[in-house]
Amino acid sequence: MDMHPPIETGATASRRPVAGVGRVLLWSGGSLWIGRQAGRVERHAHHAVQITLALDASFRMRGDAADWHEHHGAIVMPHHAHQFDGCGHAVVHLFVEPEAAPGRVLLQRHASTAIADLPRDIVDALVRPLRHAHAQRAHDETLVALARQAIAELAGPAPAPGSVDPRIGRSIAWVRQRLDAPLSLADAAAVAHLSPSRFRHLFVAQTGISFRAYLLWARVETAVAAAMAGQSWTAAAQHAGFADSAHLSRTCRRMFGIAPATLVRE
Known about the structure:
Helices cover 41% and strands 20% of the residues. It is an alpha+beta fold. The chain has two domains: 7-155, Jelly Rolls (Sandwich); 166-256, Arc Repressor Mutant, subunit A. The chain has a seven-stranded mixed β-sheet with strand order 11-8-5-10-4-3-12. Strand 6 and strand 7 (69-71) form a beta hairpin. Helix 5 (185-191) crosses helix 6. Keywords: DNA-binding, Transcription, Transcription regulation.
C-alpha cells in the first residue's frame, strides 16, 4: 500500500496509509472521486456502476479471479466484489447510480462482464478535460460538469432502458434530502404512497438493493464528501446520519474497501 509521508504526533512519528489525496464531489445520481496517490484498497462491493480512468498511468483491478489485470480505464458493475490498486498514480473514479438514466444504459450495455476494460483512445478522450481541470484546481461546479459529461459520452445517445418507478424515484429524492435525520422504511413508503411491505418489494425490484442497504450507501457517500470538503470525520458521520464515526468506518470499508481516514483532502 502506498504510504503518506510521516506525520509527527508528539515525540512519535507515525506513518499513515493513504488511499488517495484529492476531492470527492456529489450530485443527484452520481459522484466524482479524483486525485493522486491512489493506493491499494481492500476487496469490496457497492451499489453504483463504477467508471475508473487513469489520469497519468495505468492501474490494476481484480474481481473473483486471483490475477490482477492492468487497465487505463474500466467499468465495474454494481454489487460485484472487486479490488483496486492505483499503484500510487492519479485516477478518476466516477460512480453512477443504476437508478439514474446513464446508469441504466451502462448497466444494460456491460451487465455481462463484472469488470469491463475500456479502450485507450476512449479513456484518453474522456480524461483529457478532467485532467486539465484538476491540474488547474477548477471549481467544484466545473469538475462536476465535466464528470457528468464524461459519463454521458460513455453512455452515448441510447435511451435509458425504462425509467425507475416514479414512486421509488420520489422516495429516493426524499431520502437524499434528509440523511442527517433518522429514516425508516415506513417513512419512505409513506412518501411513495405505498404500504411498507409493497414498498419493500418494489424498492428491491427497481434498484436491486434493499432500502436499508441503499440508505447506508447514500449515507457513506455523503459523509465522505462532507469530510473531503473540510468537516472532521466525526462531524461528517453525524451529518450523514451515522450513529458514530466507527459505524461510518465499518460501512466505508465494506463499500469502498478503505478506512475513511486514509482519504486525504487535497
